[in-house]
Amino acid sequence: MDDAVGTLTRGTAEGGLTTGAVARLLGVAPTTLRSWDRRYGIGPASREGGRHRRWTSADIGLLECMCGLTNAGMPPAEAARAALAAASRDAPARPDEPMSRSRTPSSRTPGASPPTPGASSHAPGALPVGRARRECRGLAGAAVRLDAQAMDELLDAAIDKYGLLAAWESVIMPTLHAVGRKWETVGERYVEVEHLLSWHVSSALRRAAAQRAPTAGSGVSLLACTPGESHTLALEALAAGLAQQGLPVRMFGAALPVEAMEEAVRRTGPAAVVLWAQSRSTASRALVARVESIEWGVRGARRRPAVLVAGPGWAGQLPSRALHPSGLAEALDVLAAISRR
pLDDT, tens digit, for every residue of 151-160? Predict the structure, then answer.
């Protein structure tokens, strides 16, 4: 901790830290920081020579907030909105701060429409979606009404309009979180809403995945929840995103037993394996080591899969060699690169 403070102090005195230094300080990949800057506006207030990023202590404080929210399981787009909103409340703009730096990520998100002020509703059964886009409010309302046809139409329209990635981060996940918050605050009344919405989200993701056939010659990505883990929607979104890029994927879903996982890896020979854990109790470093050790192929040319760990359950206990994408966008980028080698 003292070393980190010293690095931050020296860097601030010298005009800010480089992206590499900040990445080491926070324990994230430099590509993640660049992605957050490009996609959500979580970037440095100034750039050396107009191009090179130099991160100040205020910039790093914003990043720490972003990291904490994503580690807790919040989607990056939603975490960025929350972090920027907190920064705007807590620190008024400095006179020397460039006006070109947006404090709202909507202007930096491709295909995103501006958030609708006053999006929360006082209607009976309204969900706490806050300032989310109109599509999010519409989907939340359809879920509360248990209107299956409306949910299908709204989900398909959002994916068609914004693309799967933006629809997942800005419409689907905020609505799912709103449903979860609703039933947590009113007891068990809205469990049926969450179950029905989850089913229709899963169906919409599969429809999106079926629109393109896999491209020959690319490596397979194997996706599975760890034993005891039943939350699959994030993995289903990843599977759909890969399928839309023409990349082959095998989705094994919830709670895949260890022996079955090992057999699946040997039989498919995947380029990469993604292990999802929603909670710390289902995140197993021993499982990662077992999957990393699996070999196949002829003697002298044996191969092993790249292993990615995903989900909030891995926070604070990351395996040393496994890759840990910060969200759906980074996971898609990493798997696409591995699959196309």
Answer: 999 999 999 9
